[in-house]
Amino acid sequence: MMKRFRYVSAAVFAAMMAGSGIARADANSTDEGLRVFKAANCVGCHKWTGAGGGGYGGAAANLRKTKLTLEQIELTIRCGRISKGMPHFDPDAYTDGRCYGMKASQLEPGRIPPEADHPLRQADIDAVAKYVVANIKGQGEATLDQCHSFFGAGSRVCDMYAKQDEGGTQHASAEQQETAETHHHMKVEAATDSNAPHQDAEK
Ligand code: HEC
């Protein structure tokens, strides 16, 4: 009973926060938003940092520098951008005028935003919109901490941010580089070996 009461008041609180335009995601909804950001492959176009950029078939917007409000971000994810590469994640976005008052039949085919490869339910759209506001919008340059929050503590993909944060070559990163080179070298040797048919046969 007590538990249910606490749950309800948390929900009311969240609604108040959303209503006042102060977008603050609690820890749980941030986790959920992060999960969606990965699962819906926002990363594929906007990168894990949200900084976007070219190289993924058109320049995805830099979400770290976005000026959009939570509501506008939610709309953009749900409806995509007409005539642009941002997909719509509501599968029914252009069936009944719910997006920008437009139906697919009213738009030239080339102007309809691409359909998302991973359509989302409204709850997931809300979660990922909150994640963008709480963890990406206005965050400046990506940091090592943010990288670890995204990929998991100690993740090797974050090594490049470690170097940046430490301001240059450090013993640790030099060692890591050596390890990486050794690995690479071993791989090359292995590849050469397997190219020799006689050695393969001997195994
Ligand atoms: C296929 C590539 C692609 C995917 C996947 C994608 N986006 Fe985008 N997104 C874009 C492009 C391109 C733009 C810029 C559109 C424009 O030029 O107005 C954009 C714009 C946005 C904007 C508007 C930013 C602004 O300031 O105008 C938001 C917010 C956004 N994307 C969030 C997301 C989220 C969240 C996801 C995952 C649920 C996602 N995007 C998935 C390509 C993508």
CATH architecture of the domain at 18-137: Orthogonal Bundle
The end-to-end distance, rounded to whole angstroms, is 67 Å
Report the total helices: 9
The main β sheet shows up as: none
Give the cofactors and ligands. heme C
Q: Indicate the CATH class of the domain at 18-137.
A: Mainly Alpha
The whole-angstrom Rg is 23 Å
Q: How does this model look, in words?
A:
The chain is mostly helical and 203 residues long. The chain has a domain at 18-137: Cytochrome Bc1 Complex, Chain D, domain 2, CATH 1.10.760. It has helices spanning 2-19, 27-39, 42-46, 70-79, 122-135, 144-151, 159-166, 171-195, 197-202. Helix 2 packs across helix 5 and helix 4 (70-79) crosses helix 5 (122-135). It is elongated. The termini are far apart. Residues 40-42, 44-46, 58, 60-61, 63, 66, 68, 73, 76-77, 81, 84-87, 89, 128, 132 line the site of heme C. The site of heme C (HEC) has 23 residues, from helix 3, helix 4 and helix 5.
